[in-house]
Design brief:
By secondary structure, the protein is mainly alpha-helical. The chain has a single domain, classed as Glycosyltransferase. It is 71% helix and 0% strand. The protein is built from 13 helices and no strands. Helix 1 packs antiparallel against helix 13 (266-295). The radius of gyration is 18 Å and the shape is globular. Residues 1-19 form the signal peptide. Its main location: membrane. The chain crosses the membrane at residues 29-46, 66-86, 92-114, 126-146, 152-170, 182-201, 213-231, 243-261, 267-291.
Length: 303
């Protein structure tokens, strides 16, 4: 399931390229996103048929469990990328993604609060994915004609952002540092306020009010925090967890471009363009590193 983080990053890149009016590049990225998504779905379905015990073990894993909703979030993001050109197809994809996201959110939350014993060391920023991922839904949902449903998803996502942020910060401050493989997930801290900013603008008619400014400001705060960990990140060998960098940077890029458009700020416009270039470089680097790791047999090794 961690592989679906690549689809999230590619979907974010597609939408960011569209927002910057790089239409040809956006369509290419969209085709690549859909191709990667379908390949991953086919691969994971084959794994579920041949090795159901491995899938069950992932569901029972305290860290890997959080990545299951990356599948449904990928669908919601693909719907967002499709909406400008194929709204009818996007609507269908969004509905499937929304149903999946709702179901997986409840399943993961039920698992968290059930009889299983989780420890503080099991918590990481990846825990934002199941519940806070709901905030993605309104970005396309409002425009596709699902405003009330989008409000429900937004409410759930924002509530659990606050709850999980407290838990994650407690773990980061008062307990052992994250294992090396999980360090890239610190970038996920950027995503909830950035996506929340985009979703709130959709829900409130595009008005840059105080709450929108708060969310964008929080995005910048967590960006600054994540940048303090770049030194550690550069010393780590490549792993699938590095794809956790892609979607947060895409969300940051989109939020900055939207903020620039609403305020007319040249500084934010150029910051958005710079972030877009950085996003393209990050995605390209991750694709090359992933292909190289696959050829070397370094992906999907037993832990």
């Amino acid at each position: 399931m961690p592989f679906f983080a690549s689809v999230m990053g590619l979907s974010g890149l597609t939408t960011a390229l569209h927002a910057a009016n790089w239409e040809a590049a956006s369509l290419t990225a969209l085709a690549l996103t859909i191709a990667v998504f379908l390949a991953l779905v086919a691969t994971y379905a084959l794994k579920a048929l041949r090795h159901p015990q491995a899938v069950a073990a992932e569901w029972q894993h305290p860290v890997k469990l959080a990545f299951f909703p990356a599948f449904s979030i990928s669908l919601l993001l693909i719907a967002t990328a499709l909406a400008p050109t194929l709204p009818e197809v996007a609507s269908t994809v969004w509905l499937v993604g929304a149903c999946g996201q709702g179901g997986l959110t409840l399943a993961v939350l039920s698992n968290w609060i059930g009889h299983r014993a989780f420890q503080t060391i099991h918590i990481s920023p990846a825990w934002f994915i199941p519940a806070v991922g709901n905030v993605v839904a309104p970005i396309a949902g409002v425009g596709l004609g699902f405003p009330e449903t989008s409000w429900v998803f937004f409410s759930a996502g924002m509530i659990f952002w606050i709850v999980l942020l407290v838990l994650v910060m407690n773990r980061l401050i008062f307990h052992d540092p994250l294992p090396g493989r999980m360090v890239p997930t610190l970038a996920i801290l950027i995503a909830p306020p950035a996506v929340g900013f985009l979703a709130w603008l959709q829900l409130n008619g595009g008005v840059l009010d105080g709450f929108a400014r708060f969310l964008y400001g929080a995005t910048l705060v967590f960006l600054a925090l994540a940048l303090t960990q770049v030194g550690k990140l550069r010393r780590l060998p490549f792993g699938l967890s590095h794809w956790a960098l892609s979607f947060p940077v895409a969300a940051l890029t989109l939020a900055t471009l939207r903020f620039a458009a609403l305020t007319g700020s040249k500084a934010h416009f150029w910051a958005g363009q710079t972030a877009l270039i950085a996003l393209c470089l990050i995605i390209a680097t991750l694709v090359v590193a992933t292909l190289r790791a696959m050829m070397r047999g370094e992906i999907c090794r037993p832990e």
